[in-house]
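Dear support,

I submitted the protein below through the web form. The confirmation email said the job was done, but the results page showed an empty box. After a refresh the structure appeared. I'm attaching both so you can tell me whether what I see now is the final result or a partial one.
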Amino acid sequence: MIDINKNFTQLSEDYLFRNIALKVAKFREENPNKKIIKMGIGDVSLPITKNIVKSFHKAIDDMSKKETFKGYGNEQGYDFLRENIKKYYQNRNVILDIDEIFISDGAKSDLGNILDIFDNNINVTISNPVYPAYVDANIINGNKINFINGDISNNFLPTLDDKCKESLVYICSPNNPTGAVYDKDSLKNIVDFANRNNCIIIFDSAYEIFIEDQNLPHSIFEIDGAKNCAIEICSFSKSAGFTGVRCGYTIIPKEVKLNKISLNKLWFRRQSTKFNGVSYITQVGANEFFSEASQKEIVNIVKYYKRNSKLIFDTLTKLNILCYGGVNSPYVWLKTPNKESSWEYFDLLLEGLGIVGTPGVGFGKNGEGYFRLTGFSSYEDTILAMNKFEEFYKK
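What the results page shows now:
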């Protein structure tokens, strides 16, 4: 007998960001002349850099000529891109083999797809609050989720305890939504726990480019022992503005094994079966990200978004609104000033100020009473939004 995957019935009816989009669409319909400043979903506002766009055009030209045309590529990614990712990590004293690097169509896809190489109904450890895609993907697979609390008491950086033994552990640093970043000692404790207790870490480093503190790790593989227990998933979405282009990568060291079986080999087999690879044009563009000329452009883009998040953080602090993040992260995580619920605060900002943010409770129960703003808007809109905050709260 054929039947549905009943785990889907355990999901909330709508994904968090779809709920926000529906509310904003309704407000726009009812208030067609009111400006809306979007500081909710983590989408970029600056265009892709000129050098990367030039590389796209070159790749398109390659596809128009018989001698340079590309058909099916390697499902794991073209070597030219994987070699540059390898060098990027080598600059942080992380040594990888090229066949430990797998090119994907973005971090979100692999954060869910990686579950294919694990059994269903496994134990999974996820921090709370957290990016909701982790939770939904594991609900769909029927996994047993153990939430570890991130709150003011631990600076939103939860640690592992005995309940986390023999589990798949999701870690995001810099964290979405709180902007908190694990230091090397904290990550070392997590890695050592994982190696002692048969855990596998899924490390989401999608926002690593925003880390400015030289003492903070960009990759979990900067930590001794991580190659025995960790998988790292990263993205070009925020660093290169590829939210609409879609490209990322997953790193699975050959040392990572369960029951003496290589997870690298399992993922290779999974990708060969279910994935035809990222387009040649996209990978050429991603490869240009690593050029010296593009890196200069990327540095300026990151500074632009970080100037926005710093402005948000500084304005809220001046208004005595408790907030976190905004330094090594594009996100600012704030406590609702007058004990509003997260969705009450969403409505207050949208209807009163025309500002769209993200209700903290959408990231888990520990997010109730909190709210996320992003630095990905334009600088002009960020200034306008903060002026609205000042005017509103000074009243």
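Response: this is the final, complete result; the empty box was a page-load delay. Residues 58 and 232 are 30 Å apart (CA to CA).
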